[in-house]
Amino acid sequence: MKDLKPTHQAQTLFPCVDGCLQVGGVPITRLAQRVGSTPFYAYDRALLTQRVAHLRGHMPAGMRLHYSIKANPMAALVQHMAGLVDGLDVASGGELKIALDSGVQGADISFAGPGKTVVELAQAVASGACIVVESAGEIERLACIADQLGIRARVMVRVNPDFELKYSGLRMGGGAKPFGIDAEMVPHCLERIAQLHFNFLGFHLFSGSQSLNADAIIDSHCKAVELACRLAAAAPQQPRALNLGGGLGIAYFAGETALDLTPIGDNLRRLMADVARQLPSAQVAIELGRYLVGEAGVYVARIVDKKISRGKTFLVSNGGLHHHLAASGNFGQVIRKNYPVVIGNKMGETARETCTVVGPLCTPLDIIADNVALPPAEVDDLVVVFQSGAYGMTASPIHFLGHPVALEVLV
Ligand SMILES: *Cc1c(COP(=O)(O)O)cnc(C)c1O
User: Fold this and answer.
1) Ligand 1 atom closest to 294 (CA)
2) What is the pLDDT of residue 100?
3) What ligand 1 atom has the least distance to the C-alpha of 70?
4) What does the pLDDT average to over 37-55?
5) Which of 268, 286, 381, 394 gives the lowest tally of CB atoms within 10 Å of its CB?
6) What is the pLDDT of residues 140-183, one digit of tens each?
7) Contact, 146 vs 167, CB < 8 A?
8) Contact 108, 87 (CB under 8 A)
9) Paired strand residues for 130
């Protein structure tokens, strides 16, 4: 077992029956037959529901919860989430369509993201969605379009704060950023917004993603509320909405521990009281992607070859980075680490063989799990990658090397 990489804690969200992992109550082998082909992504409906309930159980009453659909825009999943959350956040015209198709009203959709095209802005205005403006230029373009359409645009200002989320995987705020309007420029933009015929709703602050550090998240929530209260003084009207963004991470790698929601929820409860005093008209929202859906999904691939090269055992599967870039370590990781991986049809067996699971692509980057202990696996066994419900298929280069795309099922 030399070269063995650190081992993950046992994954317990998905039950095992007779040595077979179950998703949505269906054994993974049966699910593969039902889907008809491998690889595929499977998302567990009940786990999604449980996750939202778990989060709501810790969050203050009256705080809105939005789902950020870029984490997983599969239509059936978005539809399911739409029934559980208070709003959807989209980041393109394509996502706006998915959100509207799910039955959510434009009024409960917000559209953030840099570089919105005039077509996307027009679609958003026409739908009644809230447009989260990200630059001075975008404010002018939006004003023009709203005038042409004769609709009063609903607008929030995304603030690029003068702080950042410490220890987060992806920093989205602080310093020079393509996201949001620099905090010091916001008062000037608010003056301009007051001159235009906008329906100004409030502020959006989002400083980073994939944080497992509760203290850092608490710190960024506190600073975000403080900054919003300060900026509100320059607003054309009392803010009616304050979106604190996302940032809650999930544990992907060995040694990471799941986020403790209790202190985050307690702090938000205190902040809600501050907001009620200082910005009495504002509804507070958080918008989460990964935290809501990431743990509820698995990626399943079939082993098509087993080979030994100079003493090292390789399991070659039909799935890889073309469907699951993140698990291959090529989506924002600096040092490659393994996602939790099992042989889904051999859950009862001891992990006593050290092997490396790779995909079918002709590139050394196509690794699913490097030097992990697994039960001795054979051709036709099913490799299952956990923590795959967010930033999976749609964050992957599916055309690279021309392999079939993976199907997605909600079970
Ligand atoms: C990506 C994104 C999110 C969701 O981030 P997660 O880390 O998946 O929770 C929320 N808000 C905005 C504006 C985003 O761009």
Assistant:
1) 8
2) 98
3) 1
4) 98
5) 394
6) 999 999 999 999 999 999 999 987 666 666 666 668 889 999 99
7) no
8) yes
9) 110, 154
